[in-house]
Specification:
- The protein has one domain: TIM Barrel, CATH 3.20.20.140.
- 29% of the residues lie in helices and 22% in strands.
- Strands 7-4-3-2-1-10 form a six-stranded mixed beta sheet, sandwiched between helices. It has a two-stranded antiparallel ribbon with strand order 5-6.
- Strand 3 and strand 4 form a beta hairpin.
- Helix 1 crosses helix 2.
- It starts with a strand and ends in a 7-residue tail after the last helix.
């Protein structure tokens, strides 16, 4: 079966995310757009995942726990997990590896933690869009150790991508799937970067506003919806890495 997805969505916890990106708004917009599967991947944090997962379960939408990690090389990596506990464990590690730089809300916006009723229950004062002290290699090792998978984010972009900042994708990472931005066609991206043809790819929205969440336009083909099937599709032989 084919399932429509968007595996890169930010909530109001990300300082650059609109405050309308609440758990219920994200899930309901995804359903309105006909999506079957989403991942919420805030910058360097998983603190809004409990609420989003609860709403997704209530509304019948599969939500994959995720984090968009910014490594010390300023590379963005999408980390996806089977369960909330693993995502929260990486969240704890990342938070301790972030510099003690306060968030300037007037410049970057608030970093809001919400419950499943969209009520603000807290906020994070440390700036989440900083680079943590973990390397790309560290993030891959930690995520895989927690049973998750890593996907280099928006590899076609000139900033915060593994291709732009490292100049290549290290073979030692054994990357199987990369993420393309939805603002350009995969054919155009691979024409500019021919070496990307050897990878599987997904196209996600990197949505910071509700209207940016993907339409029912990108699909993964699986027998049924499950994180195991998603892993086997995006990162085959992951258990052997």
């Amino acid at each position: 079966m084919k399932f429509a997805y968007d595996l890169h969505i930010h909530s109001a916890l990300s300082p650059c995310g609109d405050e309308d990106m609440t758990p219920n708004n994200i899930v309901n917009m995804a359903l309105l757009k006909g999506l079957d599967l989403i991942a919420v991947t805030d910058h360097n944090s998983a603190r809004n995942l409990p609420a989003v997962l609860e709403v997704g379960k209530r509304q019948g939408l599969m939500v994959v726990p995720g984090i968009e990690v910014q490594t010390k090389e300023e590379v963005h990596i999408i980390c996806l997990f089977k369960n909330l506990q693993s995502a929260l464990k990486l969240d704890e590690i990342i938070f301790n590896c972030l510099p003690d730089m306060p968030n300037n809300e007037e410049i970057f916006g608030r970093q809001l933690i919400m419950d499943s009723n969209d009520e603000v229950v807290g906020k994070i004062d440390k700036l989440l869009i900083s680079s943590c002290e973990l390397s790309v290699n560290d993030v891959f090792i930690l995520t895989r150790g927690l049973g998750g998978i890593c996907i280099p984010a928006h590899v076609d972009r000139p900033a915060y991508s593994i291709t732009a900042n490292l100049g290549f994708i290290p073979p030692s990472l054994r990357v199987k799937t990369v993420e393309f931005s939805k603002k350009d066609s995969p054919e155009s991206i691979m024409k500019r970067h021919p070496f990307l043809r050897k990878y599987n790819y997904i196209v996600s929205s990197d949505a910071h506003y509700l209207w940016d969440i993907s339409e029912r336009e990108h699909f993964v083909e699986m027998e049924y919806l499950s994180f195991t099937n998603l892993t086997n599709l995006l990162c085959p032989n992951e258990k052997n890495l």
